[in-house]
Amino acid sequence: MSGPVSGPVSGPVPGPVAAEALAGYLRAQATEFLRALRLHREAGAGAAASEGSVEAALALRRSARRISGSLHTFQAVLDPDWSEAMRPELAWVSGTLALEHACSARLERLLQALHRLSGTAVLPAQGPAGAGPAGGPGGSARSSAPAAVTATAPATTAAPGRGSLTVGAAKAGALLDRQLTLARTRAHSTALQALGSSRFHAVADKVAVLASEVPLTPAADTADLRPPAEAARERLVDAVAALPLITAGSPYNAEALAHGLSPDPAPHPQDAPWHQVRLLLRLHRYALEVLYRAAGTAAAAEPTAPTAATVPTTAFPTTTPAAPPPDLLLLAAGEALDRHRDASEASAAAAHAARTPRIAPATAYALGVLHADQRHEVEAARYAFQRSWQKDVLGSL
């Protein structure tokens, strides 16, 4: 499988790529990190949090991920002690800032699924907080979600079986709202504490130094960045080859139900390899961004603008006039893996809620249906990835 994929990956960069391309990329990402940090502080936090502060936090995460991923892929041309010290700190920043957004998105996904499964109307508008993490930490705007579920339930005209599911869905929605809003509030407090900690200030100081000086090794003067980028591609291809794509080639995977009723709260055993492929695909894309910067496609229009400023929050951008995506063929594959991750985490949240002691049978039943629905979404995402990988990536040559 490795042969066919190499064409669209390495084709646009025919010649050697000097380490200075990596240095310029890291300086741009460090500049974007510092700009996002300043915007986050100006936008305010806590009760004064605004949509601008949420966007700034997302920009911080994007820059931290790209710097950390580049340090991992191109570690051979970077100072090893500095690189090994920076990577876990940047991963800590990105992971801490991601928790609040993950809780908000998970709650919205599960409430929408409950409405769909119970036959009610689509989830009503909930204000800024209902659309994502822009509503701040308190979750007050989201507190209307379970009430909306309850209000719409009696108006549903359905068979007796679906009626009982609708009642259970209302209680399940209220339970999920309490649990995930609490988790979101805690994640917001954790993020605020992290951004004000001495640990984060130390990371920001190192990133500020990186914006002007990249610690390359003496061997970097004659190094070519294409081999480490190719190694990142090969790790991705090997990981995809190890996936059960034959099983994923069918829209229904009966093997995925083998552990569906297990009391073990650990993540589903089939999900880990797919999550790993998603991370490797991200590293591969960041390596391509470095190579494309060297080719001049990313910096042609605005040489001084950071690359991250034109990258959307999704894993793979859909359109970037000044900086086209390195490999459009990977767009659908990356989106499928994002949906897989979201559905997997949502199913785990439903299963966790179903383990709440002394809940009503109708509530437990609704949560079980919700868990099965999200596992079905997991299988659909795997099927979409398989189709995209086989048809778009391999079939393009």
Question: What would you say this structure looks like, in words?
Answer:
- This protein has 397 residues and is an all-alpha fold.
- Helix content is 64%, strand content 0%.
- It has helices at 2-10, 19-43, 51-73, 80-117, 144-152, 160-195, 198-210, 226-241, 245-248, 271-295, 331-354, 361-394.
- Residues 128-158 are annotated as: Disordered.
- Residues 15-394 form the CHAD domain.
- InterPro entries: CHAD_dom, CHAD_dom_sf.
- Residues 140-158 have a biased composition (Low complexity).
Q: Which class do the helix and strand fractions yield?
A: mainly alpha
The helix content is: 55-70%
What is the residue-mean pLDDT, rounded to a whole number?
77
The termini sit apart by: 12 Å
Number of extended strands: 0
Radius of gyration: 23 Å
Write the layout of secondary structure elements.
Blueprint: H1 2-10, H2 19-43, H3 51-73, H4 80-117, H5 144-152, H6 160-195, H7 198-210, H8 226-241, H9 245-248, H10 271-295, H11 331-354, H12 361-394
Helix pairs in contact: 1-8, 2-3, 2-7, 2-10, 3-4, 3-10, 4-6, 4-7, 4-11, 4-12, 5-6, 6-12, 8-10, 10-11, 11-12
Question: What is the gist of this entry?
Answer:
This protein has 397 residues and is mostly helical. The chain contains twelve helices and no strands.
